[in-house]
Specification:
heterodimer, A: about 120 residues, alpha+beta, 5-stranded mixed beta sheet, 7 helices, about 25% strand, globular, B: about 280 residues, alpha/beta, 8-stranded mixed beta sheet, 10 helices, 8 strands
Chain lengths: ~120, ~280
């Protein structure tokens, strides 16, 4: 699901503008499969699939494959529409230095939800 | 061509609330039964413009929405710079009754959303004689904190943007884009720490689970409307309140935590039958 994230984010001019001050790397864990997402000036510049020995990232979002698949449906079911809905139900962990995540929350929510647009096709 | 004004008028009200002088911004539209509207945490009375512009409602109801102190165009009290805003159940009840008195309203119908949907339960419990009917939007007896609230007010994070970011997922995914982003704009404009201060009531002080059974809806009818996508005040939480109080509850399709501002047209379709019942009381 993460294969298309760079194209989906970088082709969305409004989203890139919203994240124009973001320069960080974060980790998405789908079950035990890790991926590092590098962001520079609001654009996804690199997606690296694990496994990693010493991954270097600011913050991580961890959930099961089943949860991510529901979250990435074009119209997710109740309880799977938003990262905070998952956190509230303890279906997702957001950990690490979450300052860049919270300071750019509207940006990251749409970056992480971007694969929904791909599943629509 | 004459100016294309909406039928909403706004004025500033001087009054004493909680022992202090306040200057409150109050909007109203329509005539008939007074309908006092309570906005959500960290927002303001603009959330109700969809009601105030709907003639089906304004022909029978005088809709009044005030910005709580510290919110919208209402000022914080003098000396605000040296204290932290923190809403309590006691202050919130006294504030609503104080505003109703200052506006000389006779047993207004009172409708609140989120923190407003919670406080109507406190009003139903403590002051049923003061209200003709109560309407709770997105009502639950309690919501526990599910993130660290300190992110909402610190100098290295834009308070308006993080508040909007936190609540953005509470808007229904099916909401029209314009309604979604207007709702978020209100959050972006909130004063520093105001949303966080309101959440003190919502997530800590305002827990009314233990007193639900003491609410007597024969003394003041209670109606509950909750959006199906609201994961903060859930449909399950609303139905639990309905079960324990006997209130009438409806779960609204395609709506989230801000029904009146995220999708006014759809919400008014759910509200009108409730208002018809209240007119017939």
């Amino acid at each position: 699901m993460l294969d298309a994230i760079a194209r989906l984010v970088n082709s969305d001019a409004g989203l890139v503008r919203r994240g124009r001050f973001v320069d960080t790397t974060f980790l998405i864990a789908i079950d035990d499969a890790d991926a590092l997402i590098r962001i520079q000036e609001g654009r996804v510049t690199k997606v690296t699939q694990g496994p990693f020995i010493t991954p270097d990232y600011a913050f991580a979002l961890r959930a099961s494959r089943e949860v991510w698949e529901k979250f990435w449906q074009p119209l997710p079911p109740f309880g799977f529409t938003d990262i905070f809905a998952l956190v509230k139900q303890k279906l997702m962990r957001v950990e690490g230095d979450i300052h860049p995540f919270m300071a750019n929350l509207l940006y990251f929510k749409d970056v992480i939800a971007a694969p929904r647009r791909e599943t629509k096709r | 061509m004459s100016p294309r004004y909406e039928p909403i008028t706004g004025r500033y009200l001087n009054c004493t609330l909680l022992g202090e002088s306040h200057r409150l911004y109050v909007e109203e539209a329509g005539q008939g039964i007074p309908l006092l509207c309570l906005h959500t945490a960290g927002a303001d009375g603009r959330q109700f413009r969809g009601l105030m512009n709907d003639e089906r409602i304004t022909k029978s109801f005088r809709i009044i929405a005030f910005d709580m102190p510290w919110h919208g165009k209402s000022s914080p009290p003098a000396g605000w710079q040296d204290r932290e805003y923190q809403l309590t159940s006691r202050d919130y009840v006294d504030l609503i009754v104080g505003v109703a008195d200052a506006l000389e309203l006779d047993r207004p119908v009172t409708m609140g959303c989120s923190i407003g949907g919670r406080i109507v339960l406190h009003l139903a419990h403590e002051k049923p004689e003061r209200f003709r009917a109560l309407i709770g939007l997105e009502t639950a007896a309690f919501t526990a904190p599910y993130y660290d609230l300190s992110w909402l007010n610190r100098p290295d994070v834009h308070g308006g943007m993080v508040s909007a970011g936190v609540v953005s997922g509470l808007v229904a995914p099916t909401a029209p884009s314009e309604g979604r982003w207007e709702t978020l704009w209100h959050y972006m404009q909130s004063g520093p720490g105001v949303f966080k201060g309101d959440l003190h009531f919502y997530m800590i002080d305002g827990d009314i689970r233990a007193r639900l059974d003491k609410i007597d809806i024969k003394r003041c009818p209670l109606f509950l409307l909750t959006g199906e996508y609201d994961y903060s005040c859930t449909a399950e939480g609303t139905l639990e309140v309905a079960k324990r109080t006997g209130a009438t509850a409806t779960i609204m399709k395609d709506l989230g935590h801000f029904p009146m501002s995220e999708n006014p047209e759809k919400f008014n379709g759910y509200l009108l039958p409730v208002l018809d019942k209240i007119r017939a009381l």
